[in-house]
Here is the input.
Amino acid sequence: MIEETETIEEFLARHSADVEDAVRKAAAAEIMPRFRRLAEHEIDQKSGPHDLVTDADRLAELYLTDTLGALLPGSVVVGEEAVHANPAVYEAIRGEAPVWIVDPVDGTRQFVHGDPGFCTLVALAHHGVVRASWTYAPARDQLAVAVRGQGAFLDGTRLRSGAPEPGRPLEVATSHPDFTTDEQKRALLGLRTDGVAPRNCGSAGLEYLAVARGELDATAFSWEAAWDHAAGLLLVEEAGGAHATSTGEPFRLTGGNALPFTAARDAATARRVVALLSAPA
Here is the structure.
């Protein structure tokens, strides 16, 4: 529980391990027992056949909402499924209270198909700034943690994104065509050029982790839902990477960003990707 005079930094120093424990327990209780065991009645569509939700998503989010809210009284929780039920919940990101941003199963499509490429994402933000994040891939038992100003770590080992190898094509994970407008598709076509190797992204959280590990050079995403990006953007920043929108400005958690935007292993790569996204078709 946060004390009345305690800062976010002091809260994190005392309770980061408790957040980690909550994320692991949510996955153990509600996600992994359903992995590769989902019944048909446990899967629903939201906006269409490519936008799925399962009982694991809903129940893990409820678990995290209760647990994280109790850890930090006065905080609010913005979860993907809660916002789907009531879009007004999203406005808390722009409010005064500390906010937990939760994606219970990032990569639901992979989860439904029995692919281990999914994760649980939790970020703690205040006044539009992400202060800490947790990225947990339960099928792989990998946990990445970042605290602003203190670095990024995967299972206790510090992450350093480094820079792409000179002369090698840039590997860039991009928004799937199912989730892009015609204008965004045209912008992403700028990446189909010599020296760049674009591919469709999987779980956004795991793509960010790959950038932070130096295994992927950049992302190019065309949507700005905070639960997909908050945790990973801090992870990349704290590993030494950078992010920028298609106008060259840093991505804003509170929205209104020029899209697509990129997160990259270093600032030079971010600028290169932005230039390609901004190039005339």
In short: Residues 123 and 133 are 4 Å apart (CA to CA). The longest strand covers residues 129-137. The two ends are 53 Å apart (CA to CA).
